[in-house]
Each structure stands twice: as structure tokens, then as C-alpha cells.
Amino acid sequence: MTPDEVLEQVVDYQEDLYPGFKNLLENITYHTHFPLWHHCMIAAKKLPNTSKSIKNLHFVGDSVSPQVTQGTDGAVSTVLFLLEDLLGRKLLNRMR
User: Fold this and answer.
1) In terms of Cα–Cα distance, which of 10, 36, 5, 34 is closest to 21?
2) Are strands 47-48 and 64-65 parallel, antiparallel or unpaired?
3) What does each C-alpha distance from 9 to 18, 24, 47, 77 come to in angstroms?
4) Is residue 41 within 8 Å of 58, Cβ to Cβ?
5) Is 42 a residue whose pLDDT tops 80?
């Protein structure tokens, strides 16, 4: 499939879920990237999971710390760490 065909299929899926979705679109674009784009998320300094300057602003995902592993697993782990901080109790059985 070409990128345009993939994009069209994604929009069709959205239209199935949300009738009228296509009529609301003003512009459709897609971006491509070099295959090694994720290295900055693995090796670079990451955002803290909570903003120090804006109350109740929290972050999760590949570019957030703390996290365990990388990729999808790492992104999910940031949610669990944030929940531990917000709830004030341990959810994972691991060392942090």
C-alpha cells in the first residue's frame, strides 16, 4: 500500500467509528521519518513525569522518566510510575 492508501484507510476507520468525521477534515498530511528516529527517546535526557512549574500537569510516554525498558513497554511503565506517585502506593513489584 502507498502512504496515501494507508492514510485513506485510517480516515475510513475513523469515519466508521465517528460518522461525519471526513466532513470535518480540513487538511490531511502524513510525515515520514528516518528509521532510527527513536534513539533520542532511548539515549537522551527525558522529561520528568510531573511538571515542577504547573500544578497537576503530568506526562507519560517514551520521552518521560522514570521508565522501565523502551518502546511500548517503556511508555506503559511511565503510566504505572505516575499512578504510583499520584495514588501514593506501590503498584509494581520492582526496584525503582
Assistant:
1) 10
2) parallel
3) 14, 16, 34, 31
4) no
5) no
Q: At residue 61, what are phi and psi to the nearest 5 degrees?
A: 130, -175
CA distance 74 to 95: 15
pLDDT, tens digit (0-9, with 9 covering 90-100), for 11-32: 888 888 889 988 888 887 766 6
Report d(CA 69, CA 22) in Å as an integer: 38
C-alpha span between 89 and 29 (Å, rounded): 43
What is the percent of the chain with per-residue pLDDT over 70, rounded to a whole number?
Answer: 81
Closest CA to 41 of 20, 71, 17, 19: 71
Give the model's pLDDT for residue 32.
63
Is pTM, for the whole model, over 0.70?
no
